[in-house]
Amino acid sequence: MISHAERSAGRWWKAQRDAELKRLNAEEPVNEHPPPYVRHIRHLCPGIAGRSVSFDYAEVYVTSPALMVSNKLKVQVLDQELAENSPPRKVDAVILAGRFGYVYREGRCAGCGHTARSLTGRVVDGIERLPAGRKVVQG
Ligand SMILES: [Zn+2]
């Protein structure tokens, strides 16, 4: 059962990561944005004489940092020093690092350099839904 504070933190985390993914897609544009249920991308590769090849559209799993929810569900990254020096008046919850994951996909064809990345990701429960791929990033 997820608490009210955790729900707020999950929403905050999604907004943060959606913005970060949007920035990444703007600064490092890719060739296509396949939907998240795609696992492998098949194309006629100009790098391998137009042959039909596939490459992994692999999961990227970003783990949430430790978060503090305070003063009417305001969410922020838990800063130990700040919390000790000027503690908020009312702490609703401290949420451990890795409580949430943010999942999206990306891939690149080794033959021609064709690239793909999700437009948005989704938040998962970091306790129940562990990373399924190789790429795990600390958020
Ligand atoms: Zn290719």
Radius of gyration (CA) equals: 19 Å
Helix content: 10-25%
Bound molecule kinds, no repeats: zinc ion
* Separation, N- and C-terminal Cα atoms: 24 Å
Number of helices: 2
**Count of discrete domains:** 1
What is the assembly state of the chains in this entry? single chain
Task: Give the overall silhouette.
Answer: elongated
Give the uncertain stretches in residue-range form.
none
Q: Characterize the biggest β-sheet.
A: 5 strands, mixed
Query: In total, how many beta strands?
Result: 10
| Class by alpha and beta content | alpha+beta
Question: Could you spell the SSE succession in H and E letters?
Answer: HEEEEEHEEEEE
The pLDDT mean sits at 92
* Beta strand %: 35-45%
Give a structural overview.
The chain is of the alpha+beta class. It has one domain (4-138). Helix content is 22%, strand content 37%. Strands 3, 7, 8, 9 and 10 form a five-stranded mixed beta sheet that branches. It has a three-stranded antiparallel beta sheet with strand order 5-4-6, with helices on one face. The longest helix is centred in the first third of the chain and has 24 residues, at 4-27. The structure holds zinc ion (ZN). The site of zinc ion has 8 residues, from strand 1.
